[in-house]
Fold this sequence. Notes:
By secondary structure, the chain is an alpha+beta fold. It has helices at about 55-65, 110-115, 120, 125-150, 190-200, 235-255, 255-260, 265-275, 280-290, 305-310, 365-375, 385-390, 405-410; strands at about 15-30, 30-40, 45-50, 70-80, 85-95, 150-155, 160, 170-175, 180-185, 200-210, 220-230, 280, 320, 335, 340, 345-350, 355-360, 395-405. The chain is elongated, with a radius of gyration of 26 Å. Bound molecules: 4-amino-1,4-dioxobutan-2-aminium adenosine-5'-monophosphate and magnesium ion. The site of 4-amino-1,4-dioxobutan-2-aminium adenosine-5'-monophosphate has 25 residues, from strand 11, strand 17, strand 18 and helix 13.
Amino acid sequence: MTRTLIQDLKNHIGQEVTIAGWMYNKRGSGKLYFLQLRDGSGTTQGVVEIANVDPATAKAAEELTQESSLTVTGRVNQHPKNPDIFELQVNNITIIQLAGPDYPISKKEHGIDFLLDNRHLWLRSDRQWAIQRIRDTIIRATVDYFHTNNFTKFDSPILTPNACEGTTELFDIEYFELGKAYLSQSGQLYLEAAIMSLGRAYDFGPVFRAEKSKTRRHLTEFWMMDAEAAFADYKDNMNTQEELVHAILTAVLTERQAELKILERNVEALEKANLPFIHKTHAEVVKELQSMGSDIQETDDLGGDDETILTKKYDQPIFVEKYPAPVKAFYMKRDPEDESRVLCSDLLAPEGYGEIIGGSQREDDYDKLLARIREHKLPEAAFSWYLDLRKYGSVPHSGFGYGLERLVTWICGLDHVRESIPFARTPYRLTP
Ligand code: 4AD
Ligand code: MG
């Protein structure tokens, strides 16, 4: 049997083809059935005229249940009014497995907890299919961008002896005779070692945060892409981020229109977001937020609500630069123009989505970095390898990390991050 993918039906108009997939919906009765079919590459309709098929196929059409797996052979017809739609005039159905009659997910509305409990099945629905396809395009556009720009893919470890982003959100495990190990919060520190060999590098993998926050933006396991470059200051760092996000948006808008349509995403908003990004300092943003009614103070981090109200005002992503040092990580380089601030930027997505990227120039001076490690009361011994990078050929360098699920959530227009990842992990959910 040669199998044709549904996405390629357009190349087979008038021909007989066989597709292999699942039946997700059936209408009609007696003489005529309309089967909604999907095969992973797309969806199509199969039309079964009972009078024109063999008895086995007629029986199959009658007994088919939702989510049964099957092969369908038929002639490809182009829709008379819409040339982008194709259907199959079915002449054979072979059932591979007749699904049980009690498939839990139907067309009616289900509650989110029910859907998450049935995530292994929910993934088959058209919206979830579209989200995973867009996620894949974001990943591929990222890899392409870095490949084109001379960044080497580097695989940072997940089991680590120390924290990267602060000790309050660390998952720890007993590690044989060696005491505690921690699940990585970001591969950044290892990438800093990588670039002293490779110049430019990025990693892409799961990271973990033991945050008990129940928000629409937080997961305990998520995918981070960290990038790092030698001889790059914090402005170069923002340029790279802007180019990367443009490349991602362009790829999704070019390749994933059908998926965006399924999600009812406002494509115009994404096109607008793809224009030059906005830059503001933390100090400017605090004033702006105060004028909008926020109680944020000069030395405060932006809260989730602050990010929401700020980014609802703008059509493009916003870089918020130079946060007060105390609200940011120990490794960030101080601003020579104002030692109370660091050379960092957070990139916030528009439409109320908020932070998608965190980045900064790194402290490259041995003594200053050691002083920060002590100020933050971090275990010095665990960071001795990291300090070595400032002892042997230290250079100015910068980097950033994006949260893949935050990008997917924004680009797909979802209202919660839990749909953006195949199997969401939160403080309240570990299954399926
Ligand atoms: O801002 P963060 O904490 O920065 C770092 O980890 C740096 N070491 C990255 C670097 O410079 N290489 O995390 C980076 C991004 C955030 O901007 C956000 O998009 C995402 O990771 N993120 C989360 N996504 C989902 N759930 C969580 N709990 C997240 N925490 C951070
Ligand atoms: Mg951050």
